[in-house]
User: Fold Small ribosomal subunit protein bS6m from Diploptera punctata.
Amino acid sequence: MLNYELALIIRSMSRPEIVTTLKRTAEAIFNKGGIIRKIENLGTQDLPYKMTSHGMVHKQGSYFVLQFVVPPKTIAELKDEYIRDVDIIRPKIFRSEPPEEFECTLHEEMLPPAYRKDVQEIVKKSEKIDRYKFKSNSGLDYYPFQK
Assistant:
């Protein structure tokens, strides 16, 4: 099972109606064998432009992000279900990947650039590159660009 994020814009409604809409979306994920890891409320805001959904024009919406795990073959079914929901203006499902782990120490970062390992590697790579060097001997016995 893979990690996904569902970005929802729900039409402007009262709080109990928003809760029932979120319950419907969560139940759809549970019915497909998924697990919800996190629900984040980003608040009610004006939409960046007028959006039309199910024959209605919306200027304001409530933004939510759901992080969940579900089998990949059920994503198409979830998208179809969310598009048909009258209360949801825009459902977008994204596959999220865990961030890459890297090791960083403060001591290395505080060094001047000439002493950092990554900068020294870049300098070594640039020395290996064969650069074009101007040759003043062009085979002509005069300089053609002189005035």
